[in-house]
Amino acid sequence: MRTRVPGRSEALPMIATAMLMRMYWGLSLDFTDPYNAAWMCPLVGLAIYLPFAFALRQAARIGDSSPWENLAARVPAPAMHIAALAFALLLLWDAAAASGLTAISSNILALDDVSPRLLLIPLALVILCAVLLGAPALGNSARLWLRILPLFAVIILLVQLGNYKIGWLTPILGGGIPSIVSGGIYCAGCMALLSLPWLIALPDRHRGGLLPWAVAAAAATGPLMLTQQSLIPAMIKADFTVASRIDLILNNGRMTLSPQIILDVLWFGNMLYLIATEAVTAAELLRTIVPRVPVWALAAGCALAVAAVSAWSGEWTQAGRAVALNLFAIIGALLAGLLLMALMRRRGADA
Amino acid sequence: MRKLLPLLLAACMLLGGCNNHAQVENQAFVLVMGLDRTEDGQLAMSAQIPRIAGNATSADGSGGSSGYAQMRVTGANYEEALERLDWIAPRDLNPAQLKLVVLSRELAESPDCPALIDHLARTERLFTATRVVVCEGSAEEFVSKIQPTVGTRLSTDISALFEHCIGRGFTPRSRLADLYYLMNSVYCDPMIGYAVLGPKAKSADDPDDDSGAGEAQEASALSGELMDLSDEYESDIPMRFIGAALFRDGRMCGVLDGQQTVCANLLQNELDSFYYGFGDTSVEIIPEGFIHLRVDTDAEPPVLRVRGKLSLAAEELEIDVAALTRRLNEDMEATIRAAQRLGVDPFGFAEAAARHFATIDDWVRYGWRERYVEATPDVRIEFTASGA
Predict the structure, then answer these.
(1) Domain ranges within chain A, ordered by starting residue
(2) What sign results for the dihedral spanned by CA atoms B84, B86, B89, B93?
C-alpha cells in the first residue's frame, strides 16, 4: 500500500470541498434559525475560527513534520490517544450524519422506493474504498473536482438567474443577531472539524497555509447561501422535516428537471467528498492509536461504524445539532490542551 | 490483488442499478391532476396519464383524450385519494412529470385548502415547479377536456400554452412551489392562475344545452373585459387561463380579472411587454426597466409607492398618451385597492416594506397585513418617448 498520510497539497483541496459542503448543508438543513441571514454565518464563523487556524499554524511550526507528529513528539502518548480518539469519533459521527442525508436525498430522487438504510450500503463502500486508497488519492481527486465545481455552480446560477428575489433577503438580519452568531459558531465548528486533515498532513511542496483555503471555503459558502435564500423565502409557518428541506434544496420548485441533474451531481459529488474526507481522517487518527491494525480492518470498521450510526440514529436529530453547535468548543479545547502541553514541555526543556 | 480490490468494490456500487430498477414503461406518469370536493364531503381526484402506445384506439370508458387515460377516485383526504389512485393506476403512480394541478374553486375556498396545498407540496417526487390553477366549476370536467391541440404531447402543450398566457400577462406564473412558499412565508400572498373552459368545450357534451354559455357568462362577469373577449372567439383549445385567484392564509379569497392580472404582473416585473385595452383598441406596451415598489412605513397609514416608466411598442399608433397614462394609473390603483379590500398583497409590497426592518421578529411585530389594508396607493407610471 502507498503512503496513507496526505501531504498538505493533497489535504487542502479535500478540506476546502468538505468545509464548503458541510457549512452549506448545515445552514440549509440543520441550523436554519438565521433564515435569510444565513449567508452571514460562514463569514462570522470564519472570524470565530481564526484563533483555531492560528493554533494549527503554531502546531505546524513547533516541528518539521505534520502538526500531529509535532505535538506527538512533545505531548504524552495517553493525551494524544485520547485526543485522537475524540477527533476520530467526532469525524465518524459527522460522517454518519452526512451519510444519512445522502441516503435520504438519494431516496427522494430515486424512481423506485428504496429504503434509505439500503442506500447506506454504497456509501459504506465509498468509505471503504476511500480509506483503502488513502488520503493522498482522495486529495488529488478533490483537486480535480474543485476545478469542475465552479463551472457547475455557474451553470446552476445562470439557469436560475430570472428566479432570484432580492426582496426575500430582507429583513437583512433575518432571525436576528443571536441566531447569526449561533450560526457562526456552528460554521466555525464545521471548519474546525474539517481542519483535522491538515493536522495530520505532512509538509510537502505546498508553501501556503490552511487559512487561505478556509477563507475561500467560507467566502464561497456565503454567496451560495445568498442565492439559495433568494430562491426560497423565510418560511416561519411551515414545519419541515429534513427530507422536505432536502427536497426544497434539490428541487426549489423553479428549475426544470434537466438543470436539476447538474445540481444533483454537485450535491452528491460534494457529499461523497465530505463523507470520504471525514472517514479517511478518522481512520488515520485511529491508526496513530492502533498502528498495528491492518488498513483493511480500519477501513471496514469505519465503514460499518458510519453505516450503523446512520442507520440507527434516523434523521439528523436534535442531539446531532447540539454536537454540531458545540463542535468548535470541543475541538478547540482539545487542540488548545495539546498545544499548551507541547509548549509547556518545550519551555521546560529550554529551562 | 490489493490494487484490484478497490476497483472491485467500486464496481459493486454499480450493482445497485440492477436491482429494483424502474423502467419508464412501468411508470404511470400523472400529467394533469384535478381536485374537487364531492357533495358528501369527499375529495375527488382526477388524473390524466399518458398511454404508452400513444394514440391507442381502445378507450377506458372513463373519458379523456385518446392518447391519455383519465382516472377518478375519491377519498376522505388527499393521502387516501392518492393511495386509491395508485391502486387503480395500471403502473406505479409517478407525479414527477406533473404539469398542472387544477383545484375547483369550491375546494380552493374551503378551509381544507391550506392542508391540501401542504400535502401536495410534500408529495414524494411531485414536481414542485408544476402549475396550479383554480377553475370555475368542476376540476374533473376541466381535466377531461384537456388534450394536446397543437403538437402531439400534452405535457409540451400545457407548458407552451401557459408560457404564452404568462407572456401576455393574463395569468400569473402559478407554480406550486411559489404558492406553497408564499403561503408559509413572512412576505406577500400568493396568486395563481384562474381558469375557465371555453364556451365550445362547455357545450361539447350536449350541443343543445346552453348551460355552458350561462356558466361562461357567469365567469365573464367575474373575469372582466378580457374574458368577454375570449368568449367571443371560437377555438378547439378548451382551456382559458385568464385572471388570477388570490390566496390568503392558504385559502382562495378572491379573483383578479384579466386586466387586473396584467396590472399585478406588471407590478411584479413579470412582463416583457403586454397588451392593454384602451378605448376601442388594444395597445402593446413595453416596460422600460423595472417597476419600483416602495413602502413608506413611517407614514401612518403606510404609503404604497409605485414608480416606473413604460413605452408604446408601435410608433404609428395615434394614442392620447396623457389619457392612456391616466387610465393605466387609475387601473393600477384600482387593482391595488381591490386586493387591499380582500386583505391580500400579491404584488410584493411586503418585500419592499420588510427592508425597513432589521429582523424577521421586528417585521412580524409590525403587523404588515393590518397596515397594508389601510395603506394609501400612490401610483405614478409614466410613458417615455423611447420606442413610441
Answers:
(1) 8-346
(2) positive
For the record, the C-alpha cell of A199 comes out as 493536522
Per-residue pLDDT of chain B (388 residues; tens, 9 = 90+): 556 655 665 665 555 555 556 677 778 889 999 999 998 999 999 999 887 664 444 434 444 445 788 899 999 999 999 999 999 988 888 888 888 999 999 999 999 999 999 999 888 777 777 899 999 889 999 898 887 766 667 777 788 888 888 888 889 989 898 899 899 999 999 999 998 887 666 655 544 444 444 444 444 444 445 455 556 666 666 777 888 999 999 999 999 988 899 999 999 998 999 888 887 788 889 999 999 999 999 998 999 999 999 998 876 567 888 999 999 999 999 999 999 999 999 999 999 999 999 999 999 999 999 999 999 999 999 998 654 4
Domains of chain B: 27-258 (no CATH), 272-388 (3.30.300.210)
B 140-169 residues with CB < 8 A to A: none
Q: What is the pTM of this model?
A: 0.86
Query: Is B358 within 8 Å of B285 (Cβ atoms)?
Result: no
Please say whether the beta carbons of B97 and B50 come within 8 A. Answer: no
Instruction: Tell me how far CA of residue B9 lies from CA of A1, A107, A270, B144, in angstroms.
Output: 16, 22, 20, 51
Residue type, A31: F
Strands B43-50 and B68-75: antiparallel
Interface test with A, best of B5, B181, B297, B351 (most A CBs within 10 A): B181
Residue with grid cell 410534500, as numbered in its chain: B122
Homologous superfamily (CATH) of A8-346 is Hydantoin permease (1.10.4160.10)
- Alpha-helical regions (H) of chain B: 4-13, 78-88, 105-108, 113-122, 139-145, 154-168, 176-184, 199-202, 211-231, 258-267, 321-342, 349-354, 360-366, 368-374
Q: Is A260 on the interface with B (CB under 8 A)?
A: no
Query: Whose grid coordinates read 381591490?
Result: B338
- Amino acid type, A239: D
- A33 Cβ under 8 Å from any chain B Cβ: no
ipTM metric = 0.86
Q: Are A173 and B358 in contact (CB under 8 A)?
A: yes
SS3 content of chain B, % helix, strand, coil (to 5): 40, 25, 35
